[in-house]
Fold Alpha-1,4 glucan phosphorylase.
Amino acid sequence: TWKEGFRSVNTEVPSITKSIVNHVQTSLARQAYNLDDLGAYQAAALSVRDDLILNWNETQMHYTRKAPKRAYYLSLEFLMGRTFDNALLNLGLKEQYREGITKLGFNMEDLLEQERDAALGNGGLGRLAACYLDSSASQELPVWGYGLRYQYGIFQQLISPEGQQLEQPDPWLAGGENPWELPRLDVTYEVRFYGTAERLPEGRALWQGGQEVLAVAYDVMVPGCYTKNTNNLRLWESKPKRGFDLNSFNAGDYEHAVESSNSAAAITSVLYPNDHTTFGKELRLKQQYFWTAASLADIVRRFKNIGKPFSAFPDYVAIQLNDTHPTLAIPELMRILIDEEEIPWGKAWDIVTNTVFYTNHTVLPEALEKWPVPLMEHLLPRHMQIIYDINLFFLQAVEKKFPGDRDRLARMSLIEEGFPKQVRMAHLACIGSRKVNGVAELHSELVRTTILKDFVEFEGPSKFSNVTNGITPRRWLDQCNPELSALISKTLKVDKSVWLKDLDKLKELLPYAEDAGFRKEWAAIKQRNKERLAHHVQTTLGLTVNTHAMFDVQIKRLHEYKRQTLNILGVIHRYLTLKQMTAAERKKVNPRVVFFAGKAAPGYYIAKLTIRLIVNAARIINADPETRDLLTVYFLPDYSVSLAEVLIPASDISQHISTAGTEASGTSNMKFCLNGGLLVGTVDGANIEIAEAVGENNVFFFGHLTPAVEDLRYQHMYHPVPVEEKCPPLAKVLDCVASGMFGDGGVYEPLLNTIRQHDYYLITEDFESYIGALAMVDQAYLDKEEWIKKSIRTTANMGKFSSDRAILEYAESFWNIEPVKVA
Ligand code: 26Y
């Protein structure tokens, strides 16, 4: 059975303790008697790693021997979080390790806290990649991830007493060995930048000179849940091709010698902390090419080992582009096929367009990547030639289908005219791919009807589809909410191995919503999760949280489109309302604790001001003795995957309140609902499909719908109405902020002006309906039993949102790959 078949080394408590002690004495070269928690964690991790390595090795050998078609997930971000707990759960060894660790005099929870998050991502896109790796391995699919091994992950966020966000580096590897990766110093590729590209006969070219750097592989093991299949995430590190430039070194020019080695190492030094705003930085383009070139060289080498002709490439390889960040894979594969493999253009283009798939994650214009042509020509001269050639053939085809339509040609061109000209990466990704998809139904429809409309008209609709995002129920239920997981298994009378890999089984919980005893257990677990969060806040921030209040949570990157501003203005409105009430009226009010967490891009001034307003509003509101039993606000610094694992199971309600049409999908919305939290949200992204699944009566929707947004923005531009007229209650809140209720009002002027002036994200338009939705939440919460029923029904109906479902859709309808079980 699964219980035995996939574990090879230490499966019983005595051998586990023995192995841990062994690692303490040998791998760590320490003594068992004066070991601290960190040492104990490291030794326990090395012990689990022994299991992972055997499974990983067997899996890779098995894949090589069977040579199935494989899929490669190219993502510049993998927001993995911690691995130890996840590995233990996937191997089914958590309880044995807990026992062993206790026997050795340590506490499991304390050891788990020792691990640093692998935070190689910004937010949703990076966490999605991590969930998809978990699901690929769990579904026994031959999928590898390819990314970069940044020395520094997403910055650590500090909040100053004034409420300013401060950024500190995240040297996540500094603590010594990372037990979850295998350095593969033998797996290296040379990657070229700059130089010259000289055209040769037959469409080929010779690219030479410039700078060459080395890509070195580090393999991160990705265990599946209850299976031997352990997939691979290959992360590239850059290093100088030779230690440093010996010629300069010998000539006494030490600085120049070290400079070239520094510039090579710089490529993978840090994750760019922006999401949704592009800056056109040369180093970022270098990262993108370095990573796509190394990954493709690796993929091509593996394909060649099978010994098939290149025409069979699409039968063995599928490449998924996670947004446009890896789009250079398209011209790079063309370059390899044409210049190195001497395949003619037409055949090469056929191979590429049958191999590559593109997922779009946003329709916001400022997030669509464009690279200046002069920069591309300088850094990647051969790729720029190829892009021009692709564009020429493509526009000829468009002209043939739509003769004389010059506007259309200008709109569709890979090159945007201007000073400088720019390469439109989404257009390149689209025409170079077999399929293009969005990440929720509404978003995919917006991709088809807005940013890629011309391409749908040209190529027909069948290439453009939808794969609604998903989340892994292993991390986002079993791991983060073990009590709920246990209750579900007990109630369904099945081992969790069954429902965790077939999440539709949660439907069988539905009848238990009517069972008072079950509801009591359900509510008690939510309560204990609230206490766990309160304990976390107490120990990390020294603040006491009222666990008898409703927990209301908004955790995500700070961005105007996500409208944390709407939330905090709503909080202030609630505060003003409470202040005006009599003591008797206040008695009827539902106590509420509002949590915020999230990072702002370091250069995003308005987002940072929003944090400042939240922190200062919290300071004033929490200190008010008249209201503090009824309303408190917390901004939890340094949001991370690990913090999410504590926050999500504790929420009664969470907020997903983007302006309609702006949030492609959202994935934390799914995590909250899976844990029995209810949503307050706009009719946007995956909120819509969640409501379809769980029932609209279990979601608190508000706000204008997507089709209205464009018209409203037009009105705001050309027929502005002052906030005082459009929305008096909001005007009052803005006045309080401006008049200094939360510290120097002048500080917030730029933030308030975004609302008073164009109000691009339509806060004035949605404010009243938002306040109305929150009132409905209060009303519903009064009926505790009915609320718990809603909570149970929500969890029960979340099966669709497993990332297993999503990854199987990619596997079956895009990649055409099948499970390869490692027996
Ligand atoms: C080009 C660069 C500035 C850039 C870097 C990162 C642009 C975008 C991003 C990240 C985007 C992102 O995280 N998008 C989110 O993807 C999730 C997974 O599909 C969605 O659920 C979420 O709605 C979307 O905002």
